[in-house]
């Protein structure tokens, strides 16, 4: 009966599956749609909802993600569950990781040592090596995409968000589109020189560095400066923060943060590095520095909450008025954003209950962030012009 109703209403055949999922809180929002928690017959899952009008002409990116996820089966990669579509949306259902983001979770520990960091990096690297063996490049490795499956202390870490991952036609194929996140993208990506698997190894180097000291190896705030900083390969291990960390850890990071992709360790080579054996890793407690890192991110989370709310509202306005799935994008984006994992605690009643000082601080940061975004966009355009002029034959 339900499939007959779908045909009569013009819905695709797979739309029948939607009744199997009861949508819950919003977990995040991006350019193309949102991610929501949902209840299913087998338990809680994550549902990525993509508005078709936002990917019109680029539907292949959705199909690529679907194909990738369906073929990946690894304990440290988020598991594909199902997919379906409606007239105006795609739905991708995956395993729900409830244990929190990497740095958030670590900061709940009483202690976090270099030996603990080895285990974290090994789990991420196992997943990356699995991908690279299959000619898949993730292209967006960053702490926010590293999630713990459950709140249990011995929970596995999983790699998530394959929205811009690519399967290479051959191991030597070069990708040319801009990809990755500011601060984690490899220099060849920012320079549009063509890139492949080594970009994931660079990102892993940035993550490992940050994991061991609580700050990024590259701290430039504009694209031209960041390109220059990364291209010169100036990786500094400040004595004050690194004196308790082993030389093998520094060597491992240095082998990954090589400006030339050909000089970086491959995933299989990195897995054989002496540091990952854990024998030379110290018991130096990194947690105090990581907690400072998280504290600096608190206000940024407030800004992201506001951005998330605005993005959800924009996506809701983009929905067709006659959509069968109006409930997929929350009607009250502010409350949905406040319930998102990693958002700052908001008292009952949502954003209206935030203190005047908190609202003022968030508003100020939103304005400053907007100004920085505008400046960054302008500098990005100038940098791209410079790169184009340098690559044009004289």
From TrEMBL:
InterPro entries, A to Z: Kinase-like_dom_sf, Prot_kinase_dom, Protein_kinase_ATP_BS, Ser/Thr_kinase_AS
CDD domains to which the protein is assigned, alphabetical: STKc_CAMK (cd05117)
GO MF annotations, alphabetized: ATP binding; calcium/calmodulin-dependent protein kinase activity; calmodulin binding
Keywords: ATP-binding, Calmodulin-binding, Kinase, Nucleotide-binding, Phosphoprotein, Serine/threonine-protein kinase, Transferase
SMART domains on file: S_TKc
Compositional bias per record (Basic and acidic residues), positions renumbered to this chain: 373-385
Chain positions covered by the region annotation Disordered: 317-355, 373-394
Binding site for ATP: 52
Domain Protein kinase: 21-276
EC annotation from Swiss-Prot or TrEMBL: 2.7.11.17
Catalyzed reaction equations: L-threonyl-[protein] + ATP = O-phospho-L-threonyl-[protein] + ADP + H(+); L-seryl-[protein] + ATP = O-phospho-L-seryl-[protein] + ADP + H(+)
Family of this protein: Belongs to the protein kinase superfamily. CAMK Ser/Thr protein kinase family. CaMK subfamily.
Protein name: calcium/calmodulin-dependent protein kinase
């Amino acid at each position: 009966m339900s499939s007959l109703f779908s045909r009569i209403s013009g819905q695709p055949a797979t739309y029948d599956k939607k009744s199997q999922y009861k949508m819950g809180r919003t977990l995040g929002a991006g350019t193309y749609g949102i991610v929501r928690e949902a209840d299913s017959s087998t338990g809680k899952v994550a549902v990525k909802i993509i508005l078709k009008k936002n990917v019109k002409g680029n539907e292949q990116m959705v199909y690529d993600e679907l194909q990738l996820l369906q073929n990946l089966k690894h304990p440290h990669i988020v598991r594909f569950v199902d997919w379906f579509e409606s007239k105006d949306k795609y739905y991708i259902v995956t395993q729900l990781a409830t244990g929190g983001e990497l740095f958030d979770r670590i900061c709940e520990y009483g202690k976090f040592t270099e030996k603990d960091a080895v285990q974290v990096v090994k789990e991420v690297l196992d997943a990356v090596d699995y991908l690279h063996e299959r000619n898949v490049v993730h292209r967006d490795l960053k702490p926010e995409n590293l999630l713990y499956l459950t709140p249990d202390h011995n929970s596995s870490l999983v790699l998530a968000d394959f929205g811009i991952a690519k399967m290479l036609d051959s191991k030597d194929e070069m990708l040319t589109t801009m990809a990755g996140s500011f601060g984690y993208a490899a220099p060849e990506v920012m320079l549009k020189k063509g890139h492949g698997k080594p970009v994931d190894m660079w990102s892993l180097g940035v993550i490992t560095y940050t994991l061991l000291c609580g700050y990024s190896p590259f701290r430039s705030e504009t694209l031209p400066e960041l390109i220059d900083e990364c291209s010169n390969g100036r990786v500094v291990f400040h004595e004050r923060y690194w004196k308790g960390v082993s030389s093998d850890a520094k060597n491992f990071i240095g082998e990954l943060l090589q400006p030339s992709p050909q000089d970086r360790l491959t995933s299989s080579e990195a897995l054989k590095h002496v540091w990952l054996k854990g024998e030379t890793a110290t018991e130096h407690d990194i947690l105090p520095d990581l907690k400072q890192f998280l504290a600096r991110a608190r206000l940024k989370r407030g800004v992201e909450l506001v951005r998330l709310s605005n993005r959800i509202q924009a996506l809701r306005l983009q929905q067709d008025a006659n959509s069968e799935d109006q409930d997929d994008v929350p009607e009250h984006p502010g409350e949905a954003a406040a319930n998102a994992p990693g958002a700052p605690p908001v008292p009952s009643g949502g954003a209206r209950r935030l203190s005047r000082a908190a609202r003022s601080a968030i508003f100020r940061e939103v304005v400053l962030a907007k100004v920085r975004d505008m400046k960054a966009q302008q500098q990005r355009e100038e940098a791209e012009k410079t790169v184009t002029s340098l690559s044009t034959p004289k």
